[in-house]
## 1
Amino acid sequence: MDRKEPALAELAKIVRGADTPNRSLTPQSEGLVAIATGFSLISKDDYDNMAKQFYLYDALYAFCKSDDKKAAVSSRH
């Protein structure tokens, strides 16, 4: 675990769960698989896919940096 950047280590764990058969590694991993699959279905090529997904990973990183994840998940937007 990266002690200097714990949010980045948490994000890495979510992605690892999505990229391996261990989808239950984090509660977010299975959702990330579904979302990434959806992006691949609506993208014209790998570059387009990556460009569209950057916002997702920025948002997921912000979630990982959140001090109060329970409040963030329970709030309505």
Note: Residues 36 and 74 are 23 Å apart (CA to CA).
## 2
Amino acid sequence: MADVQAANILNTPREERFDRLTDLAKEIFGVNMALITIVDSDRQWFKSTCGLEGVSETPRDAGFCAHAIFEPGGMVIPDATKDPRFADNPFVTGDFGLREKRSGCPAACGGGE
């Protein structure tokens, strides 16, 4: 978490350079949304979103990204309703309906966090 804090990126305004990456990821992978998410000790904060508007952060314990950061090769969830880590997640069962394929890949700061 020290690297996340040292990067001074949390709670900063949107930036076109990050938005270009999420737009590109959404297009390349043919998905309905793409995010650049920073995970800190108690939340996941969205630096950039494409296809998910009006949400800037979620609690860490309800997030997919909090799991993805512990998967060095990335994480793919074919159906969140059938994955015991996410089946009762409010973002899967509620209005967001994040049921279909989800994937995430961690990015490291200078110190590896």
Note: The first helix runs from residue 2 to 6.
## 3
Amino acid sequence: MRTTVARKCRSSALIGDKAYDSDSLIDTLNQRSITPVIPPKANRKAKRDCDFVLYCERNLVERFFNKIKHYRAIATRYDNSLEISSPLSSWSQLSSCSTEDRP
């Protein structure tokens, strides 16, 4: 029997942005005794309360992941010389081969 990661996790709150503000998700979280920390959408008829102090922690987590992505981009950037990466230089190398030299 396969179990999902969400069923194995024991958390007390789920922090999400306004895109996760749906009644079905919030009902599911409440059934599992998980506090939804999701700000209500502006067009929601019945406004819900949100713990904005805990919601501000989400910003810290997002900044952390953005820094990881930024440093990964720097770490995996390869320094190519102009001679190798220039399309004009590769064209000049190809055009320098004469067809007359072939047998």
Note: The beta strands are 13-15, 35-37.
## 4
Amino acid sequence: MIRGSNIAHSEMIEEAGEPFKEPVRLPIEDALDLHAFAPKEVPSVVEEYLELCRQAGMSEVRLIHGKGTGAQRAVVRRLLRNLPGVLSFADAPSQAGGWGATLVRLKPADG
């Protein structure tokens, strides 16, 4: 779960590499790097993050999922297809990550 607006997530990691003990606060910026999250956390993190972005008045954000096998990209895209606050999504331009990132256009929070 994402709460608030900023905290260094590395401060919350236990020395043994255990999962976070408390919710992680992320800055509400125009890009979110999903590499820091366990795969099972990605859907809830993305959903909450996009809603916070909409509430902050953002119209476009970039989700960085990496290229790898494409599994994380597929999870993100499957989720985006079903979120009512998403207008559209596509691969980022090559200089912004190409198919390793997804640009998401958001509906206004009041609309």
Note: The helical segments are 42-55, 71-81.
